[in-house]
Write a structure and sequence with these properties.
This protein is α/β, with parallel strands linked by helices. Helix content is 25%, strand content 20%. The chain has ten helices and 13 strands. The strands form four sheets. Strands 7-6-5-8-9-13-12 form a seven-stranded mixed sheet, sandwiched between helices.
């Protein structure tokens, strides 16, 4: 077996090696040592409970979309780059059930599940999660449907494809992109499982590989999920919204993501908006012997550098998004969850009159 090494400064606090059954099988490590898990889901959609676009904010719990893995997930059929497998549903676990039990000596008494319990027959509803930032972005899409209606959308680092699937309920075309044939096959599988959502709206989801560390899109027809010339023309000619959820956990990849945003922005024919979700994670580091949030700080510094770019033909404007929009998926919307918008517009040349020129 190849030796596994981790970058010393990389801390992924919400990643857990949790493998109680086949729906939680870690298949590999990403380039920065991030575990990649199997993760399939199907959204249970209640149209009657949907909140109209533009509704006033609040911590609403209408639950129109409950995310749950299918009953029998075949091994090897998909995985998640978001770090943990996917679930957004009501938590029915009582405090008594999770309270720590102590033995007569005061030690923690760990009660293990009997091996007779079959993985295919869970005793209760499956309890899977994605990172909260992805669910925050999903909530934003659900509450701002008019913003995505009829648009062409590009998601970077799609992971399970959750945001792409929800955007496609109203968008015309969504390019769901990530790196790795296993991840992209998982996205394709989740899209098929949730085709009931996009069928009525007519949105098309195209799963493609987009590597932030490469300057060009792969056009080799022999490579799975490569780009056709027609797709590239449509991407650059019509995309107006870009999405990225919870991909700012490693400084090198954050730099690559912002470099990719700039490169794409200069190729897009229309003004565009990038919507980025991030969780400000606090971690204790041995290097500082203190609690820090280095990944978030680096993300904010990249935003400032992007906004400070001058002398080009594009202008980047950055602003935070008020996250008081309705909460439709069930997760803890903590204050460390943030959404940011990056507006990309062409720089208008000043009009020089004849008198000024003379």
């Amino acid at each position: 077996m190849d030796e596994i090494t981790f970058k010393s400064d990389t801390v992924l606090s919400d990643v857990h090696l949790h493998t109680p059954n086949q729906r939680h099988l870690m298949v590999r490590l990403s380039g920065v040592g991030q575990p990649v898990f199997l993760s399939q889901f199907k959204l249970l959609w209640n149209q009657a409970s949907q909140t109209d676009s533009g509704a006033e904010g609040g911590n609403h719990r209408a639950h129109p979309a409950e995310v749950t893995p299918p009953a029998r997930s075949p091994p090897g059929s998909g995985c998640s780059s978001e770090g943990v497998s996917l679930q957004a549903g009501a938590d029915t676990t009582s405090q008594e059930e999770v309270a720590a039990q102590l033995d007569e000596d005061g030690d923690l008494d760990v009660v293990r599940r009997p091996r007779a319990a079959s993985p295919s027959k869970p005793s209760g509803p499956p309890r899977d999660k994605v990172w909260r930032g992805a669910l925050l972005l999903a909530d934003y899409i659900l509450s701002q449907r008019d913003l995505f209606r009829g648009r062409t959308v590009l998601e970077l680092g799609a992971g399970t494809g959750l945001a792409s699937i929800l955007a496609a309920t109203v968008a015309q075309t969504v390019y769901c992109t990530d790196v790795g044939a296993d991840l992209l096959a998982m996205c394709q599988r989740n899209i098929a499982l949730n085709s009931h959502l996009t069928a009525t709206g007519g949105g098309v989801i195209k799963v493609k590989e987009l590597d932030w560390l490469k300057d060009d899109l792969c056009t080799d027809p022999e490579v799975p999920f490569s780009w056709s010339e027609e797709d590239i023309s449509d991407l650059y000619g019509h995309t107006t919204i870009l999405l990225a959820a919870e991909v700012f956990y490693d400084d090198d990849l954050t730099d690559a993501l912002f470099k990719t945003l700039c490169r794409l922005a200069h190729k897009l024919k229309n003004a565009s908006t990038a919507i980025l979700s991030v969780e400000k994670r606090l971690n204790f580091t041995l290097r500082h012997l203190d609690v820090t949030c280095e990944a978030y700080d680096h993300f904010r510094s990249c935003l400032r550098r992007l906004e400070g770019l001058t002398g080009g033909r594009l202008r980047f404007a950055v602003e935070p998004v008020d996250v008081s929009f309705p909460q439709l998926l069930v997760y803890e919307r903590i204050q460390q969850l943030e959404l940011w918008k990056v507006f990309v517009e062409p720089v208008t040349e000043p009009v020089v009159s004849a008198d000024t020129a003379s």
